[in-house]
Amino acid sequence: MIQTMQQISTIEELRVQIKAARLQGKTIGFVPTMGFLHEGHLSLVKAAREKCDLVVMSIFVNPLQFGPNEDFERYPRDIERDSQMAAGAGVDLLFTPSVEEMYPRPILTTVSVANVTTPLCGASRPGHFDGVSTVVLKLFSIVQPDYAFFGQKDAQQVAVVTQMVNDLSVPVEVIPCPIVREADGLAMSSRNVYLSAEEREQALVLSQSLRQAAAWLEEGLPLEQIKARIRQMIADKPLAEIDYVEILRYPDLQPVETELPGQAIIVALAVRFGKTRLIDNLIAAIR
Amino acid sequence: MIQTMQQISTIEELRVQIKAARLQGKTIGFVPTMGFLHEGHLSLVKAAREKCDLVVMSIFVNPLQFGPNEDFERYPRDIERDSQMAAGAGVDLLFTPSVEEMYPRPILTTVSVANVTTPLCGASRPGHFDGVSTVVLKLFSIVQPDYAFFGQKDAQQVAVVTQMVNDLSVPVEVIPCPIVREADGLAMSSRNVYLSAEEREQALVLSQSLRQAAAWLEEGLPLEQIKARIRQMIADKPLAEIDYVEILRYPDLQPVETELPGQAIIVALAVRFGKTRLIDNLIAAIR
């Protein structure tokens, strides 16, 4: 089937297209991204393509979700390449608004989610999840999708968006999709491009320690011991600097009070290599 | 025309009705209220009736927008009477969810609007407008109206909701409607029922001082002098206790830095009579 993708950069034009699709009774799948696409993003498009009549992808590097000392300015961008990849993967509408289009005046409205934003990246990156929930709600208002597809690499983001959608009765179903990895195990990320060859090599410790954690969980090791062992594995890599190593209840991301068999948990890592901060996680259950 | 109103108390049931109306291409008008209806509310229904194919009214006394020492518990409720009045005014769908239906679990998501919420009732009632913007966004998500009708008595609420809708690109047009008054000038309010006969009499000072303010503005009196005269008028009423008397730029509710002719302003009052807090306002321009 020949698919002709339309690239749209204004909210008004997108609304016209969405309205037309709605009138034809089409279901709308939405893949919000910050661009610099990789196989992880394309797996979300594939899931949307299978479930929905119209697939909308947004590419917007959202300044609200970057801290003052973070990488908003240098975040990798390549809209030409992204556009080709999106078209190839079956995106129907590619929404690429400018910052001025999304925030024509300073935005005074903030959407905040409590509790699930407290630990992990919420603790390391103050304000980050306010920026995420605010822009996602705005994108949902513009695209009005039936389904929205998010990668589980950003597991906390999935938890935050799901909580927001439930709390505010937003008429969209959030569909989390599995982490996509390079052949050697490194979780796909637009930020991987920052890594030097040496950092790239040592960064394998994230996926390797999570694979070990899965085995240790199988063996029934206590969670504190698993955390200590992961920390040790990462500390053995000279270029690695731990931001956090946490094991929390899933999906509410609260501390595991008692280790009940069957309890769903997330093993979540954030590690810096030079200026690059990588995250990865494993969702599992206590034996 | 015989109008049969449907009363609905669950989100799911309302969604079914809204979806059916949408499929028939109907435009949807929405009048969110806390019930204990009066002519002010009915004027909103009238405006919605004239502009839209389907008129949805919600009645929900929203605990989020009441402070711990405010009147949530004793806020007047009379769903039987409200239902009859709504049907008589031409409401098609009356949405009357319980607190449990709206907030089945503690809500973790908050929608906050900065700046316009800082002065006036935002200063007197901390957290009030977070409760308002959060519930209004949730109701908008449920009802998905084309137009939403709000009374200008709550002028700051209109400003907050308009700002939120613009910031988040919510696909709804906010329609402010004029204040409706009793024959003697008292602005209609569900809280007027709290007033004793004596308080009710003295409460006329709100509308009277605003009428005076309009005349003083016509005469070109400086704003500070107008504020002082209003304060004096209110202070002359022994049962009145001023919460605030403010003149601000409209609609952004910021201080008037320089008194430019033609500048739109709001004269806003909040006055307590015993346990009852009344508000009223005038929107005008500097001469």
Automatic annotation (TrEMBL), chains A, B:
<keyword id="KW-0067">ATP-binding</keyword>
<dbReference type="InterPro" id="IPR003721">
    <property type="entry name" value="Pantoate_ligase"/>
</dbReference>
<feature type="binding site">
    <location>
        <position position="65"/>
    </location>
    <ligand>
        <name>beta-alanine</name>
    </ligand>
</feature>
<feature type="binding site">
    <location>
        <begin position="151"/>
        <end position="154"/>
    </location>
    <ligand>
        <name>ATP</name>
    </ligand>
</feature>
<feature type="active site" description="Proton donor">
    <location>
        <position position="41"/>
    </location>
</feature>
<keyword id="KW-0963">Cytoplasm</keyword>
<keyword id="KW-0547">Nucleotide-binding</keyword>
<dbReference type="GO" id="GO:0004592">
    <property type="term" value="F:pantoate-beta-alanine ligase activity"/>
</dbReference>
<keyword id="KW-0566">Pantothenate biosynthesis</keyword>
<dbReference type="Pfam" id="PF02569">
    <property type="entry name" value="Pantoate_ligase"/>
</dbReference>
<feature type="binding site">
    <location>
        <position position="180"/>
    </location>
    <ligand>
        <name>ATP</name>
    </ligand>
</feature>
<protein>
    <recommendedName>
        <fullName>Pantothenate synthetase</fullName>
        <ecNumber>6.3.2.1</ecNumber>
    </recommendedName>
</protein>
<dbReference type="GO" id="GO:0005524">
    <property type="term" value="F:ATP binding"/>
</dbReference>
<dbReference type="GO" id="GO:0005829">
    <property type="term" value="C:cytosol"/>
</dbReference>
<feature type="binding site">
    <location>
        <begin position="34"/>
        <end position="41"/>
    </location>
    <ligand>
        <name>ATP</name>
    </ligand>
</feature>
<dbReference type="GO" id="GO:0015940">
    <property type="term" value="P:pantothenate biosynthetic process"/>
</dbReference>
<dbReference type="InterPro" id="IPR004821">
    <property type="entry name" value="Cyt_trans-like"/>
</dbReference>
<feature type="binding site">
    <location>
        <position position="157"/>
    </location>
    <ligand>
        <name>(R)-pantoate</name>
    </ligand>
</feature>
<dbReference type="InterPro" id="IPR014729">
    <property type="entry name" value="Rossmann-like_a/b/a_fold"/>
</dbReference>
<keyword id="KW-0436">Ligase</keyword>
<feature type="binding site">
    <location>
        <begin position="188"/>
        <end position="191"/>
    </location>
    <ligand>
        <name>ATP</name>
    </ligand>
</feature>
<comment type="similarity">
    <text>Belongs to the pantothenate synthetase family.</text>
</comment>
<comment type="pathway">
    <text>Cofactor biosynthesis; (R)-pantothenate biosynthesis; (R)-pantothenate from (R)-pantoate and beta-alanine: step 1/1.</text>
</comment>
<comment type="function">
    <text>Catalyzes the condensation of pantoate with beta-alanine in an ATP-dependent reaction via a pantoyl-adenylate intermediate.</text>
</comment>
<dbReference type="InterPro" id="IPR042176">
    <property type="entry name" value="Pantoate_ligase_C"/>
</dbReference>
<feature type="binding site">
    <location>
        <position position="65"/>
    </location>
    <ligand>
        <name>(R)-pantoate</name>
    </ligand>
</feature>
<comment type="subunit">
    <text>Homodimer.</text>
</comment>
